[in-house]
Structures are given as C-alpha cells and as structure tokens.
Amino acid sequence: MIEIIRPGALASVQDLGRTGFRRFGVGRSGAMDPLALTIGNRLLGNAPGSAAIEFTLGRAAVRFHEDLRVALTGAECNANLDGVPVWSWHAFDVRRGETLTLPPTRGGTRVYLCVAGGIDVEPVMGSRSTDLKAGFGGFAGRALHDGDRLAAARPGLAASSDWLGVQAPAWALRCTDSGNAVPIRLLPGPEYDDFEPAAQAALWESEWIITPNSNRMGLRLQGPALARRADRSADLLSHGVVPGVIQVPPAGQPIALMADAQTTGGYPKIGVVIGADLWRLAQVPLGAPVRFVRVTLEEATNAQAAVDRYLRQIDQALQWQGDGMTIAARRRTGSRAAA
Please, which domain of life does this record's source organism belong to (predicted)? Predict the structure, then answer.
C-alpha cells in the first residue's frame, strides 16, 4: 500500500485517459504529461496505460507500506527517499516504511509516481483516470487527500532489480530555440482566418504567460488581445473540441484546452497545439512564457515520428540494461555457488 502523507497542490490517479465517450459528453482526462507517464510505465515493464499518481508542483510526500518497485518521471524536484536523493526518469526499489518526499518542482509542473503493475483502482469506462470535474474514476472520483491509501497491482521486488534510467525528453526532444520562452509548435486552427492580421501576427510573435488561473481543464494565457475581424465576429454554434485546441473568448486572451477539457465549445479556435508538444505545454510553470511556432501538418507528423522513435530507443536501451542486470545476477549466483 501507498499512503499519501501530503498531496501537495493537487494529486490524483491518472492513466492515459478514457476514449470513445466524447459523443456522450465525457472527456478524456488522463495524465497532463502523457509522455512522462508512458516512460514511467516502460521503466517498470507495465502495460502502457497503467495508472500512476500525478502530483502538481511537488510539495508532497508518500509512505510505502510494502516493498515495491517504482519510477519517478516528469518535472525535476530533487526527490528523496528517507533523505537519500533519488533521480527522476529512473526506476528504483523502495522498502516498507520508507517515505518518498517531493520538494517543489524546478522547471516543470507535474511529477509522476509510477508503481509496478500500476495503481490498482477500479476502472470506470475503461480507464482508471480521475475526472475531477465530473467526480468519477480514480480514487473515489476525487483528488487525493492526506491519509489516503492506494494499492499497487504488483507489489514486491524482483531479485535482479537495480536502478534503471533514461534520458529525459526535454533533452532528447529539443525544439526550436525561443530564448527564455518555451517553444510550442502550433497548427493554425479552423477559425484562424477569422482574426485580424495583427492578431494573427501577435499569435506567433508574442510571448504568452501561463497565468495562475490555469488548471487541468485549460491553461489561460496572458498577452496581446486577439481581435476577430468585424465581418467574422458573429457567435459560433457549439462544436467539438479536444485537448490542444486554443480558444479565444471575447476578451481576446487565449485558453489552451488540456486533459480535463470539456467536449464542446463555442469560442473560435485560432490554433491547435500539435500532439507531440502537449507534454511540453503541460510542464510549463505558472508565470513562465511560451512562444508559439507555426508548423505545417507534415512537420507535425514528423514531430510525432520523433517522439515514437525516442520511445523505441528507450525500449532498446531498457532491454540492454535489463540483459546486463540478468547477466550480472547470474555471475553473482555462480560466484556464490563456487565459493
């Protein structure tokens, strides 16, 4: 069992989200940084969609009530296990009674604690993710509180287990240099042409600040007001929206829809963050700037191919590391037998 000692600003059980229910008004939910979750599960040999605990901004702590194999991914936070530093983007063993502490995050927003077999909660609509706005899924349909206890699906330790680590995506998947601003690649949205030329230019040329009013539903951006053309300023019928869509309300300040976003909306969509950069946007700290980089559909496809290639490289590296640990364990066994 895993006991929540402190959940920090927000902690919840998330997997890769529930799909196939948007036509019924049920959003995806799931990890804000799906790449971090995917890598954590790979480090542990879990099924790709296994559930983990998503911590926002760190300042959290959990206690382990059984031996367990875990992995820590996402934002760096100088985590420690009973005072001993542990590394992000690594899998490692924890022992019964030990406490993992997550200090405030640095250069990111969300930390993922993945466990062997995944967090064992009851699936709802095919997913263990918590839909916080609707109040179902995950652990009792809510954010985690002090004293909550969650089970791991595969407790215990393997005899040959050791530290396993990979290169963080921030290093492996570098993007265009935008100075201090985080570059986020963007496709023009369906209503892009409804905006004034000055607004279109501002979208690409300005730095946009992630405001404190942001949450898992959407990131509110602060920058120049984006005005629509007078001849295209009529109200729109509600239409389907997905995570990554950037809507512009009447005040002109954009909102980037994220994992818990609604399924329909009536604001014009000026752009869509490419799928390969959703993890990057999810990790931008509050108050930090982003700059949108215009790309073509072909460039967006190539970016996703780079992510897929990175994951294949991780699989190969983990196989090599695993083979090395198996050989080392056999040698140790042979040496003891000879003695």
Answer: Bacteria
